[in-house]
Amino acid sequence: MSDPVLSIRGLTLALPKGADRRYAVEDVSYDVHGSEILCVVGESGSGKSMAANAVMGLLPKGVRATAGEILFDGQDLLRLDEKQHRKLRGLRIGMIFQEPMTALNPLMRVGAQIGEVFEAHNRLTPAERQSRALELLIEVGLPQPEKAIRAYPFELSGGQRQRVMIAMALALEPELLIADEPTTALDVTTQAQILELIADLQRRHGMAMMFITHDFGVVAEIATRVCVMREGRIVELGAARDVLERPQHDYTRALIEAIPGNHIPESRYLDPPAPLLEVSHLHKVFRSRGGLFKSSREVHALDDVSFILAPGETLGVVGESGSGKSTLGRCVVRLERPDSGTLALSGIDLSSLKGEALRRERRRVQMIFQDPYASLNPRTRVGMAIAQGPIANGVPRDKALKQADQLLELVGLGGVADRFPHEFSGGQRQRIGIARALALDPELIVADEAVSALDVSIQAQILELLEDLKHRLSLSLLFITHDLRVAAQICDRILVMQHGRIVEQGSAREVFLNPQAAYTRELLAAIPGREPSLASA
Amino acid sequence: MLYARLIASRLFKAVIVLFMIIILNFFLIQLAPGDPAAILAGEAGATDEAFLRQLRERFGLDQPLYVQLWRYVSGVATLDFGYSYRQQMPVLDLILARLPATLLLTGTAFVLSLVLGIVAGSLAAARVKKPSGSLIMALALLFYATPLFWVALMSVVVFSVYLDWLPAYGLYTVGAGHTGLALVLDVGKHLILPATTLALFFMAIYTRMTRASMLEASQQDFVKTARAKGLKNSVIQRRHILRNALLPIITLAGLQAGQMVGGAILTETVFAWPGIGRLMFEALQQRDYNLLLGIFFFSAALVIVFNIITDLVYRLADPRIKEGS
């Protein structure tokens, strides 16, 4: 094998005092060779991005290298001063970040932002920079590149912005490209396109690439070699095929197993006598209000949506962003009022209720939100956060708080009622969110992307908890997700939504093994790392 | 095209708002205690009923309220703001005579505070946790906390009385007969103390706000992107951080600009600056209601104009803002 482009030797990065551990990464060594993709995999807090930040000279404040070296082209990057390091960034080492929504300056045109890379390294004249930018936009496959170069980031979709980021990172043809979770924030079909683009560009330019991800599906898709990290240490390093098929370390095995797999459980669902929720011909249109001097704009978030949900059933709603799946969830809990159609919960039409009657019935449908960090009031103790719902419904305070204790016990968090949300991890907060939803003794729970923000191992635990609670409390679940693998795991039946319409519905097995709609097939094909056995089954 | 339509729509709304302000002001003045005719008569030394009636008739005060309102509104529509009983001059002439001095003072203070505040705030943000940055913030806090009139008096004591560098009061040297460039220089010299005094408070606010806003912007992901490109720190500070940090400053600057007509009463009084602020103060004391109404109208109009300008500047600064969203 040729000399590595990048060689990390015994790198140890110390965290500032008071952090939850001493080292961000400890004694980490790996090489990245030309024309290969090294995937660095780990869950949040594993330190997987830290070494990359050290390579770029972009370590967060307070984090410093205490041992080891990072060799790039014969020099130790840790010994460079800021000015020398700056000359490498963008020119010889490029980087792509996770959040395409925020990683571009919102006030600058795309062309200017790409042009800056040349400017930073004194290359080309301003006019040449723009023509190079245009070539780059064409190379990364942006539609209408002549228009896109004049566009502001907010005028582009997430996938398009990520293409701009890639164009920027490629501008000066760096020898090493670092991609930090570049597809995590994208829809599954967009993710598949971007992964293909990255792999294709890496091959064509013969770059060395360090690809940081938490997703073993993505690893299976593009990795040449894999480095698995946990709590700042490398637990496994080897060729992609070896690691994926014969993981040596227990942790790697656990991570791979924790991915909601290709095994689809047999549906337990039998035709019940009466549906719990019956939704028929639901419509919801969002209008930007027109004024004296402008016309209004309409978006059909829900377009003639009809389905039924049986008692004790888990119904999955799957779709990409903008498909209307969240609006559907919000209509079911009546946070949003549908324009027309009915939403009958055991015969009572929720869509037309108002005031006191709505307050009474609303209790029966509760919601679990996506972001466990944002959905709890940071200044309210978690016991109180859970008790507030019952108190508002007339339960005496003492009784409600006692009940909150029991609920926390139920979700596996006993004796923590007087703590504040910031004292909990993401997974624990989501358990609190579940306890809060259960406090009003609902019949139906709407879980909107309830596990999307969590690491896979935590995800598996929360899904297990939901499944368990559902049986014990005989709940029904409307499970909204963009992640088909998760949906396959726990749903009895699945609705696939696109542009506000249901394009397919059926039992989980039918939808996954024998998809009828072209869009469903497209979604399934886009899942990274999906084994061909399932697709052809 | 988009802007033309935007401005047209804003002006249309502005006219409605202004009309409502006129009516509201009219009724507010009606609520004020005291009969203007009685006060006028009192100052003239006559209190007999016939003279009062004559005064009321002459100024239309004997008419029913709706007639008075109609007369006033239709007058304003033709730029006739009535007659100041006290100063024996049309209100419009009085205001127009004082307006330039006030706009010169408040406009200078506005530009001064904005420019210095943003520069000082950027420096403080770039030097966060360093002594020089802390010093800037300490000074800003001092200016923010010190009462305006005290700064005004002290600056007169130090720079005029003690050091004798700058004139203590007035718009220009009375009786010097300066013309042309000499007059400009003379006015400039008179302007320094009041403008600086007036600017300090807002400068302190802009400094604090720019710094906070820049520190927040520097945490954003696109700053990391900019660093990954290999851009120099100074370029990142200016082009990426400052530009994004300026948006809240524009809002605040719009508010300050709206106060340019009426916001300098204290400074104008201390420095004997012949501006609107003092005119308003005098009108208030003398119950010169027509004059007060006229000044209110001009202040309100200026607030509205600057609101429209702020909106336009905001749209130029932030491409994400589209009409109506």
TrEMBL record, chain A:
<dbReference type="InterPro" id="IPR027417">
    <property type="entry name" value="P-loop_NTPase"/>
</dbReference>
<dbReference type="GO" id="GO:0016887">
    <property type="term" value="F:ATP hydrolysis activity"/>
</dbReference>
<dbReference type="InterPro" id="IPR017871">
    <property type="entry name" value="ABC_transporter-like_CS"/>
</dbReference>
<dbReference type="InterPro" id="IPR003593">
    <property type="entry name" value="AAA+_ATPase"/>
</dbReference>
<dbReference type="GO" id="GO:0055085">
    <property type="term" value="P:transmembrane transport"/>
</dbReference>
<dbReference type="GO" id="GO:0015833">
    <property type="term" value="P:peptide transport"/>
</dbReference>
<dbReference type="InterPro" id="IPR050319">
    <property type="entry name" value="ABC_transp_ATP-bind"/>
</dbReference>
<protein>
    <submittedName>
        <fullName>Peptide/nickel transport system ATP-binding protein</fullName>
    </submittedName>
</protein>
<feature type="domain" description="ABC transporter">
    <location>
        <begin position="277"/>
        <end position="524"/>
    </location>
</feature>
<dbReference type="GO" id="GO:0005524">
    <property type="term" value="F:ATP binding"/>
</dbReference>
<keyword id="KW-0813">Transport</keyword>
<dbReference type="Pfam" id="PF00005">
    <property type="entry name" value="ABC_tran"/>
</dbReference>
<dbReference type="InterPro" id="IPR003439">
    <property type="entry name" value="ABC_transporter-like_ATP-bd"/>
</dbReference>
<keyword id="KW-0067">ATP-binding</keyword>
<keyword id="KW-0547">Nucleotide-binding</keyword>
<dbReference type="Pfam" id="PF08352">
    <property type="entry name" value="oligo_HPY"/>
</dbReference>
<feature type="domain" description="ABC transporter">
    <location>
        <begin position="6"/>
        <end position="256"/>
    </location>
</feature>
<dbReference type="InterPro" id="IPR013563">
    <property type="entry name" value="Oligopep_ABC_C"/>
</dbReference>
UniProtKB/TrEMBL annotation, chain B:
<dbReference type="InterPro" id="IPR045621">
    <property type="entry name" value="BPD_transp_1_N"/>
</dbReference>
<keyword id="KW-0472">Membrane</keyword>
<dbReference type="Pfam" id="PF19300">
    <property type="entry name" value="BPD_transp_1_N"/>
</dbReference>
<feature type="domain" description="ABC transmembrane type-1">
    <location>
        <begin position="99"/>
        <end position="314"/>
    </location>
</feature>
<comment type="similarity">
    <text>Belongs to the binding-protein-dependent transport system permease family.</text>
</comment>
<feature type="transmembrane region" description="Helical">
    <location>
        <begin position="291"/>
        <end position="314"/>
    </location>
</feature>
<dbReference type="GO" id="GO:0055085">
    <property type="term" value="P:transmembrane transport"/>
</dbReference>
<keyword id="KW-0813">Transport</keyword>
<dbReference type="InterPro" id="IPR035906">
    <property type="entry name" value="MetI-like_sf"/>
</dbReference>
<keyword id="KW-1003">Cell membrane</keyword>
<feature type="transmembrane region" description="Helical">
    <location>
        <begin position="138"/>
        <end position="163"/>
    </location>
</feature>
<feature type="transmembrane region" description="Helical">
    <location>
        <begin position="12"/>
        <end position="32"/>
    </location>
</feature>
<dbReference type="GO" id="GO:0005886">
    <property type="term" value="C:plasma membrane"/>
</dbReference>
<dbReference type="InterPro" id="IPR000515">
    <property type="entry name" value="MetI-like"/>
</dbReference>
<protein>
    <submittedName>
        <fullName>Peptide/nickel transport system permease protein</fullName>
    </submittedName>
</protein>
<keyword id="KW-0812">Transmembrane</keyword>
<feature type="transmembrane region" description="Helical">
    <location>
        <begin position="191"/>
        <end position="209"/>
    </location>
</feature>
<feature type="transmembrane region" description="Helical">
    <location>
        <begin position="103"/>
        <end position="126"/>
    </location>
</feature>
<keyword id="KW-1133">Transmembrane helix</keyword>
<feature type="transmembrane region" description="Helical">
    <location>
        <begin position="246"/>
        <end position="271"/>
    </location>
</feature>
<dbReference type="Pfam" id="PF00528">
    <property type="entry name" value="BPD_transp_1"/>
</dbReference>
